[in-house]
Amino acid sequence: MNMRKERYRGTLPFALTQFGTSVLGAPLLYAPCKHKCKILAIAGIHGEEPETTFLLSRTLRLFAEPLQSTALILCANPDGMNLGTRGNARGVDLNRNFPTANWSSETTLSKATLESERVTELSPGSSPGSEPETKALVEIIRKLEPAEILSIHSPLACVDAPERTPLVSFLVKLSETEHKTDIGYPTPGSLGTWCGENSIHCVTWELPRLAPEILAQKFTEKLAHIFL
Ligand SMILES: [Zn+2]
Q1: What is the pTM of this model?
Q2: How many angstroms is it from 74 CA to the middle of ligand 1?
Q3: Which of 62, 72, 74, 197 has a 20 to 30 Å separation from 144 between CA atoms?
């Protein structure tokens, strides 16, 4: 693995590629890989989870050149990140806006921490896949055809995936959390549900509730070894 010297790690090693545009006109960017994409890692689909973007960016910055078979989306919801909101600029939870068979127009509920109630209300969008960020994600996933998607969230501290693949086992061990095959409540229109309908194994990694710098310290070097 060609790693960068620490003094050069303050910037990204190469330019990212635009795959779409957000509601407010921000570029949606991804880091392509050299060969066929095995893993597509996605962070920042919820704007209130900036540590996911920080962790993925820190991991990418260890590398000196594009990765072999892992593509990365550092921030799937740049408007939400800019505003500090869970949803996008139209208040839509992008992770309930995917065009799945069970997409529902009902208000979605979410919780901020493991302990809290699911009381935060967000829109799932006006129709399945109504948001430009969701449409762009669907297009880039169809283009890259990854075998597995790693969707990074926080701070519920678990690994939610239908199957126990090597990636799931790795993340369970790395973050000392448990593997769940079901998050415990329905998630119509989620990326995970959409992946299931499209025969892509989706691993939702909920980071533990830790400061970004601690997450980076704990996880980046080891993550880099599976992002080859
Ligand atoms: Zn989330």
Answers
A1: 0.96
A2: 14
A3: 62
Name residues of the chain where pLDDT drops below 50.
none
User: Could you confirm whether 221 is annotated as catalytic?
Assistant: no
Q: How many angstroms separate the CA atoms of 38 and 26, rounded?
A: 27
Give me the catalytic one of 6, 176, 206, 213: 206
Pairing of strands 148-153, 120-122: unpaired
| Residue partners of 29: CB distance under 8 A and separation at least 6 | 16, 17, 18, 19, 73, 74, 75
Contact 175, 207 (CB under 8 A): yes
Q: Residues 143-185: pLDDT tens digits?
A: 999 999 999 999 999 999 999 999 999 999 999 999 999 877 7
* Spatial distance between the Cα atoms of 108 and 119, rounded to a whole number of angstroms: 9
Cα of 45 vs centre of ligand 1, distance in Å, is 7
- DSSP structure string for 74-133: S-S-HHHHHHT-SS-TTSB-GGG-S--TT---SPEEE-SSSSS-S-EEEB--SSTT-SHH
The CA distance from 135 to 169, in Å, is 30
Is the N-terminal amide bond of 166 cis, ω within 30° of 0? Answer: no
